[in-house]
Amino acid sequence: MSFTSIWFPVFCAAAIAAYFLVPVKYQWKTLLIISLVFYAFANPVYLPFLLISIITTHYFMLKGTGKGLAATLVINLGLLIYFRYNIIPGHHSLIVPLGISFYTFMTLGYALDVYNGVIKPERNIFKYALFISYFPQITQGPIGTYEAMGQQLTEPHYFDTDRLKRGGYRILKGYFKKLVIAGRLMFYVDTVFASPGSYGGLTLCMAVFFYAIELYADFSGYMDIAAGLSEILGIRLAENFLRPYFSRTIPEYWRRWHITLNEWFRDHLFVPLMATDFNRSFSDRLKIMLPKAKTATLRTMLPLFVVWLTTGIWHGASLTYLGWGLYYALIMMVSTGTAGMMKRLRKKIKWNAKNRFIIIFQTLRTFFIVCLGYIFFRAGSIADAGLIFKRIFTGGLSLSFGALTEALVPFGNGNQAVASILILGALILGFFIYELLEERQDDRLSRHRLVLAAAMIAATGLLGVFGQSNFLYQAF
Q1: Cα angle vertex 175, ends 170, 181, to 5°?
Q2: Is 226 in the same domain as 344?
């Protein structure tokens, strides 16, 4: 069931009522039933594969052995690879199970944490099943850990009006982001990226910029709805976004964007790779070629490359995702490798990191680099990505009347196009101001929360795009 479905609010109201009306000792069991019903409602065909993942992981990790871990990895990664990457031609007749990339990483994270002694194996399979199937997070995350969520899911919770207000406000914010901001931008982005060869550099630049806003509003909007709903139930989900477009460097950006996925890769891939003998040997060879480089820096190079290559592949089998992963692998390796040199340079030129203009410059520079990466991420093919780069950087960004008129074409004709761009401009500006106030922890947001809630309800009712699409990350 999609969060944008007309039935979702009805389902949530019934779920919340059932959860708080049953005796507290039955709450977690009720929540498990609700979660499985929610998942089956999307498509009953998905459910057996979720159950296979739950049952096999729980059974094989009861003793936390290496053989159990190996079996868990083979089964779960096997299912993920089969459904996501179609490696057996002619045998891909089933629809990709909803949320398989996210719940697979949760099962693997649980298995690795048990094997490494971070947590003890959960003996009750139904409690473990609730952790994996918990309905607010199963389709798009956040990718929770059993250490953080296990006890929360099974301990008693009592209805609280303050939690209802906080959670309800966050749900409103999430729907505003998705239905108004992302929903309105979707038409322009989809039109231009469907046929990039039909447009000039200015239009393509606008489409890339709009996609950056659309993806953030869409994905973080989902997380706001999931976190708000979970807060009403008394269960705290991990934060997945921390206003990433205010980042001043790319490493900082990736500490603020899709936080739980990046933490997963850090804990379960980057750190283990750092400690391998192969990585030590590889970095020693690099040291011969780069004798002045620090050994600690060189030892991050291979793990960074593997992590970002894997991150790209995790998003899908398309070469565009691979290109996106390699793009960030290169940037992160260069950023890490030159960190010491840049620190010395800033000290030499007395770089004032608190200067307002420097902050703005670094933030815009980082956003520009992120937008370049989005060209790979959103383009329909590598050829389309190459065409977009070519037209933006070699075709010239003309601001002539003709170029401006062409940039309005995807919005429609005449007054409709002008009205669309004015409405979008106002929405994006308002969205930016709201995010900026949150970044500065401005207390005006909390003091005027009722007014903001009313404004979001009105805007969603008047400008929201209903019934057009699911959340973008459900495709992953």
Answers
A1: 120
A2: no
Contact status, residue 122 vs residue 62, Cβ threshold 8 Å: no
The reply to whether the predicted model has a pTM over 0.90 is yes
Q: What is the pLDDT of residues 323-363, one digit of tens each?
A: 999 999 999 999 988 888 888 888 888 888 788 899 999 99
- Distance of alpha carbon 262 from alpha carbon 252, whole angstroms: 12
Q: What is the tally of structural domains in the chain?
A: 3
* Band of pLDDT at residue 90, cut at 50, 70 and 90: low
**What whole-number distance in Å separates Cα of residue 199 and Cα of residue 404?**
11
425 within a domain of the structure (yes/no) = yes
Token output for 461: 């009712």
135 in a structural domain = yes
Q: How confident is the model at residue 88 (pLDDT cuts 50, 70, 90)?
A: low
DSSP state letter for 269: I
Same domain, 183 and 128: no
In which region does residue 53 sit, left (phi positive, over 0), alpha (psi from -120 to 50) or beta (all else)? alpha
**Using CB atoms within 10 A of its CB, is residue 421 exposed (0-12), middle (13-18) or buried (19+)?**
middle
**DSSP type of residue 236:** P
The domain boundary, picked from 154, 185, 211, lies at 154
Name the residue among 169, 162, 227 with its Cα closest to residue 456.
169
Q: How many CB atoms within 10 Å of residue 170?
A: 20
Same domain, 418 and 339: no
The residue with tokens 């007054």 is: 415
Spatial distance between the Cα atoms of 185 and 411, rounded to a whole number of angstroms: 10
Cβ(362)–Cβ(248) under 8 Å? yes
171 and 145 assigned to the same domain: no
Report residue 246: phi and psi, to 5°. Answer: -100, 10
Host domain of residue 96: 8-154
| Start-to-end Cα distance in the chain | 16
**Is the pLDDT at 72 greater than 80, yes or no?**
yes
Buried b (16+ CB within 10 A) or exposed e, 101-117: bbbbbbbbbbbbbbbee
Closest listed residue to residue 66, CA positions, set 111, 107, 125? 111
Q: Are 213 and 185 in contact (CB under 8 A)?
A: yes
How many residues would you count in the chain? 476
CB 244 within 8 A of CB 212: no
Say if residue 135 is in the same domain as residue 166.
no
